[in-house]
Prior knowledge:
Blueprint: E1 4-7, H1 21-34, E2 38-39, H2 53-67, E3 72-76, H3 82-95, E4 99-103, H4 112-123, E5 129-133, H5 135-138, H6 144-150, E6 156-161, H7 167-175, E7 179-182, H8 188-193, E8 198-201, H9 208-219, H10 223-239, H11 247-255, H12 272-284
Parallel strand pairs: 1-2, 1-8, 2-3, 3-4, 4-5, 5-6, 6-7
Amino acid sequence: MFPGAYTAIVTAFDSAGQVDYDRMRALIDLQVEAGMDGIVPVGTTGESPTVSTEEHNRIIEVAVETARGRIKVIAGTGANSTAEALELTRHAQQAGADGTLQVTPYYNKPSQEGLYRHFSTIADLGLPVILYNVPGRSAREIEVETIVRLSRHSNIVAVKEAAGSVERVSQILRRCDILVLSGDDSLTLPMMVCGAKGVISVASNVVPAAVAEMVHSALDGRWEEARQIHRRYYPLFSDLFLDTNPVPVKAAMALVGLIPAVYRLPLCETTDSVRAKLTEDLKELGLL
């Protein structure tokens, strides 16, 4: 249902720290023009932990309104509380989102049975679910066996793999029929070689056309073209994670004039050394 290149789009704030919905609309239009297949608002990169429920819901509404069916909108509506995830997902469904990205509940460290029940309960709402495996943030991995069980639910259609493991892609696809999307830009191509069908990308906030072309080349079997793009953009793919996401990507976007580098605490600006490395990468790519 969701093969292709998706942008985990940032949440733009104005100088006063308020959500800048006009700038959000402009960023979404850029993604459409670049050939991306969809966007994922208010995920990790969208700073979902620091926006209010009202802001969260409005960002999704604006994303759907701006996309206007031109690209898909996969709403980040996960939470560490199943009740909260259900509330956010119902709103996204009513707003017209095409699907939902459901992060592994964080901090409370549920068992695998708890994870199975959590994701299944949300999938029962009817909105297509992409599971989000990111143990580095959530302190819990969705074990392969649990993904196998969840794949039998008709509304659980994909998994975003952000555990840094290409091997897991092979393990998952060997065991069940579910679409896998990379959650790490630097591993997108290696994961696609193993059978993944795309990416939910951070880098595409800065270089959407390149990410779209790399993924579509791989999907079409034009592997040498995909490899060339991967090699050219690999330094940026890697350096966007020199600091906590989305701090570096917002810094890079600020350098090229897309947004101001504004965050909400506890996130704050990156170091001079990281900014210098990003500047070097962007100059090498001809973006500065």
